[in-house]
UniProtKB/TrEMBL annotation, chain A:
Gene3D superfamilies: P-loop containing nucleotide triphosphate hydrolases (3.40.50.300). One of its GO terms (molecular function) is ATP binding. This is ABC transporter ATP-binding protein. Belongs to the ABC transporter superfamily. NCBIfam families: PRK10419.1, PRK11308.1.
From TrEMBL, chain B:
CDD domains: TM_PBP2 (cd06261). The lineage of its organism: Bacteria, Pseudomonadati, Bacteroidota, Flavobacteriia, Flavobacteriales. The keyword Electron transport does not apply. Gene3D superfamilies: MetI-like. The chain crosses the membrane at residues 20-43, 165-191, 198-220, 226-245, 280-298, 333-356. SUPFAM superfamilies: MetI-like. It is found in: Cell membrane. This is ABC transporter permease. It is a multi-pass membrane protein. PROSITE patterns: ABC_TM1.
Length: 559, 364
């Protein structure tokens, strides 16, 4: 056992100032294995791995107790000079954001070569050959071209491959991958995961794979470690953790993600597991059919006809301006009370379409009929009235609220602008009413956005949106920035509100599982065009188009 | 539970309070502000513009003492109390520095003070000039704490009254620059496109003219005088404010809460004033503090060149101008004292600007 052990944590605690963020954790990493660390934001999963490389911010953080043993040396006591010979050579790391972890002013090949020159005695010529070999290894198409390319000239997935090539350049013993695929599309994520697996099998190095995505970890890891608020709540073989989770938190985490097979009426949250009040009611296919029959008998609320949005970019004085169609000939109908899911990879035009419906960006051609009236041709004064009816819930709960306005006032402001209700007193009562509806209380009225957590802020954003009593709400990646357990709460809230107020949603997301759970109809978009449009369950079961199949196939399946 | 919440503003204020130099500068500026408003209350010489000259005791050292005979003024003035309080006495009694004196039967005879060991003239004055009380009440020893300038005026009083111009030019210039700069910057940044191009063109043209030259041009157009200087300095300073505001707005308008405000149907004016401007005030406040300091410097520069406040009005820059050639004549204090005043006030504004920048930086 101890022979097999390459890295071990012993009773490690880390503090930021007075605040202890890692409480006395112990675990080990075996040779030739992939260890998955899973947890939500703030669970300390990244902090503990940064500690391995001595990359914690020196001024504010401190390792209070414990040790990290690597090859019989305690990494917590190492000087920064001796760390340099370990970093990159013995232990290397891949970061989340491939866009910002490569130096934009250096050619990709040079950046990899630099590491080789730093840590080995290879000549420049040899280092270049070695780099191209590495690029072949990480399956970069046309390695010679990538060698001479600047980071902005290659795609996100290719950048992440370059990062992996950098990380494995010196044949490290340990590779730490910190959320390496979170910023990537599902199909690209799938490829990167496969690549990491094959590389690991070839080189027999140990990998620590950190992520918040449970199903992803079930695909890659041999052993899993679940972290929650700075503690390790559970660890063990991947299969046993997923089949038979012991800790309540792990159970909640596994179940709060919408399943692709069945459709639960209410998603279970951590709170439910703690109180033991999980609701396993399933919406059956018959229920769904019944509901759809009623839905589709009415005239459509919104009808989008041949909408197009063209962007023209001027690349220089002498070049002809090039045009790019972000949305290309899209038409669909939306019925009152329905949820239309809009799914696609980044850059497929789904947000642009949402903005065109909201009239935030004018469409280039085509028409959008809302209750029979073409809203693309309305004068500005009419659009203001329309704003009351069509609303949006944003992706980022941190930047969608004005940091200098207390939340109560932020919710009250749209009411004032649209002259809803007679007096401020009445409006305030309404706001408190809405705050209660979204699961917050009156006490929060005078607080500022920075005093809330991400999930709470998203609730405030929703409260502000529904304050106007709109009919149609566009949810633009509204839950993508949230942790899984919070995501379940917000999804439940959205469904609840839909039943109470009869909203119609356009639910935009890149996460097929979430979209499928929420939607009646599903619209798959690719490169500005509609790939497929049908009932969500039908599409999932029998995808007709190649692209849809690829998309469904790429979703990590749980065990 | 009524929860008193901490807004970002309050957090910044708490942080500012912890910065010693910031708070110190703040109190110093408040002090100078009070002094400049109530200058005539504090000044030993409270005649208008502290303009009581005694040519025989010109350019004396700080702490100079002399016996002073006050000859009361014959004619009555009808100046209101507040006018006197804020603008000084229009007509005052004549003051004569004397070496010695003797009281005769119905005349007072005194010898005028002269420096450099010369004999002063012997003069007599009928005692009837001094109404009611005895003559001794009109003869007192007077101390000039900062010495006297080249016209024998009390330098301390001149410095106190001069603070007024330096201080108010800062206020007026910053006010005008904010008014124009924030408006132009917001319009350019928010609407972009052709409006932006036009405003940027105006900004670049204004910027290409040297400040001093522009101020001279404006003073020539509007006439000499200190109000013209106020306006001229303000008109040159809006450029920087506008550029900062424009840049900030361009990045702030990409924030989701601005898009949210647009989606909620708020009009442009409301979005700019309520949702964008409060969030970009930090750099504007910092640049205003720097502008305040720059305005003071420009004014003293202009006064030094003789196109600022006109004599007999007291201004620190003009005081340096009057006395800079005394520096090599062994009486540097005449120019150094107002110089130090300018320096300390400008530094206070710079320090407060730095402290504000640190306090308003919410990220760290």
């Amino acid at each position: 056992m101890s022979n097999n052990n390459i890295l071990s944590f012993k009773n490690l605690s880390i503090s930021f100032g007075e605040n202890e963020v890692i409480h006395n954790i112990s675990y080990h990493l075996n040779k030739n294995e992939i260890l998955g660390i899973v947890g939500e934001s703030g669970s300390g999963k990244s902090v503990s791995s940064l500690a391995i490389l001595g990359l914690l911010p020196k001024k504010i953080s401190k390792i209070t107790t414990g040790s990290i043993i690597f090859n019989n040396t305690d990494l917590t006591t190492l000087s920064s000079k001796s760390f340099q010979s370990i970093r990159g050579k013995k232990i290397s790391m891949i970061f989340q954001e491939p866009m910002s972890s490569l130096n934009p002013s250096m050619r990709c090949g040079k950046q990899v070569q630099e590491i080789l020159l730093q840590h080995t005695n290879l000549s420049k010529q040899r280092a270049k050959q070695e780099t191209i070999l590495l690029f072949e290894k990480v399956k970069l198409p046309n390695p010679e071209r990538v060698y001479n390319a600047y980071p902005h000239e290659i795609s996100g997935g290719q950048k992440q491959r370059v990062m992996i090539a950098m990380a494995i350049a010196c044949k490290p013993d340990i590779l730490i991958a910190d959320e390496p695929t979170t910023a990537l599309d599902v199909t690209v994520q799938n490829e990167i995961i496969k690549l990491l697996k094959t590389l690991q099998a070839e080189t027999k190095m140990s990998v620590i794979f950190i992520t918040h995505d449970l199903s992803l970890i079930s695909e890659i890891a041999d052993r899993v470690l679940v972290m929650y608020k700075g503690d390790i709540v559970e660890q063990g073989e991947t299969a046993s953790i997923f089949k038979d989770p012991q800790h309540i938190y792990t159970k909640a985490l596994i179940n709060s993600r919408p399943s692709l097979e069945t459709r639960l009426k209410v998603l279970p949250t951590i709170q439910d597991y703690l109180n033991n009040t999980t609701n396993h009611k399933i919406i059956s296919e018959a229920d769904r059919k019944q509901k759809h029959k009623i839905l589709y008998s009415k005239p459509p609320l919104l009808e989008v006809k041949n909408i197009e949005k063209e962007y023209i970019s001027k690349s220089g004085w002498f070049n002809k301006p090039t045009s790019f169609k972000a949305v290309n000939n899209v038409s669909f109908k939306l019925y009152e009370g329905e949820t239309l899911g809009l799914v696609g990879e980044s850059g497929c035009g789904k947000s642009t379409l949402g903005n065109a419906i909201l009239q935030l960006d004018k469409a280039t051609s085509g028409s959008i009929l809302y209750q029979g009236i073409d809203i693309t041709k309305l004068p500005n004064s009419e659009i203001k009235k329309l704003r009351k009816d069509i609303q949006i819930i944003f992706q980022d709960p941190y930047s969608s609220l004005n940091p200098r306005i207390p939340v109560g006032e932020a919710i009250m402001e749209p009411m004032k602008v649209h002259k809803l209700y007679i007096s401020d007193k009445e409006r305030k009562e309404k706001v408190i009413d809405i705050l209660n509806k979204v699961g917050l209380s009156e006490a929060y009225f005078n607080r500022y956005p920075h005093e809330f957590s991400g999930g709470q802020r998203q609730r405030i954003g929703i409260a502000r949106t529904i304050a106007l009593q709109p009919k149609l709400i566009v949810c633009d990646e509204s839950v993508s920035a949230l942790d899984i357990s919070v995501q379940a709460q917000v999804l439940n809230l959205l469904n609840e509100l839909k039943e109470d107020f009869g909203f119609t949603y356009i639910f935009i997301s890149h996460d097929l599982a979430v979209v499928k759970y929420m939607s009646d109809q599903l619209l798959v978009m690719n490169e500005g065009r509609i790939e497929e449009l049908d009932d969500a369950d039908v599409i999932y079961k029998n995808p007709k188009r190649e692209y849809t199949k690829k998309l469904i196939h790429a979703i990590p399946k749980e065990l | 539970m009524s929860h008193k919440s901490n807004s970002l503003k309050q957090l910044a204020l708490q942080k500012f309070k912890k910065n010693f130099w910031g708070v110190f500068s703040f109190y110093y500026i408040v002090l100078v502000g009070l002094v400049s408003v109530f200058a005539y209350v504090f000044a030993p010489d409270n005649s208008q513009h502290a303009n009581q000259m005694h040519l025989s005791i010109h350019s004396k050292k700080p702490g100079f003492k002399v016996t002073m005979l006050t000859i009361p003024l014959q004619l009555e003035t009808n100046q209101s109390f507040f006018d006197k309080l804020f603008f000084g006495k229009k007509s005052t009694d004549t003051e004569v520095p004397i070496a010695n004196y003797s009281v005769g039967e119905d005349v007072l005879s005194y010898k005028e003070y002269t420096s450099d060991g010369l004999e002063g003239d012997l003069k007599t004055i009928p005692l009837t000039t001094f109404p009611d009380s005895s003559v001794e009440d009109y003869i007192k020893e007077k101390t000039f704490l900062f010495g006297t300038d080249k016209y024998g005026r009390d330098l301390l009083s001149r410095v106190l009254v001069g603070a007024r111009i330096s201080f108010f030019i800062g206020f007026v210039a910053v006010f005008i620059s904010l008014l124009i700069g924030v408006f132009m910057g917001s319009v350019a940044g928010y609407f972009g496109g052709k409006v932006d191009a036009l405003i940027m063109w105006i900004i670049n043209v204004t910027w290409s003219i040297p400040t001093l030259l522009l101020v001279i041009a404006i003073t020539l157009a509007l006439g000499k005088g200190f109000w013209q200087v106020f306006i001229a300095v303000g008109l040159t300073m809006w450029v920087e404010v506008a550029r900062v505001v424009r840049g900030q707005i361009i990045s702030a308008k990409e924030m989701q809460y601005v898009t949210a405000a647009r989606a909620l149907g708020f009009d442009d004016f409301r979005i700019i004033t309520k949702h964008i401007l409060p969030n970009i005030m930090a750099p504007v406040i910092v640049i205003s503090a720097a502008n305040f300091a720059a305005a003071i410097l420009i004014e003293s520069g202009l006064s030094f060149l003789g196109i600022g406040a006109q004599p007999p009005m007291a201004s620190w820059g003009a005081m340096i101008k009057d006395h800079y050639n005394y520096i090599i004549l062994g009486k540097p204090y005449l120019a150094i004292i107002p110089g130090l005043c300018i320096m300390s006030l400008v530094m206070a504004f710079m320090l407060i600007g730095n402290a504000l920048r640190d306090a308003l930086d919410v990220k760290s």
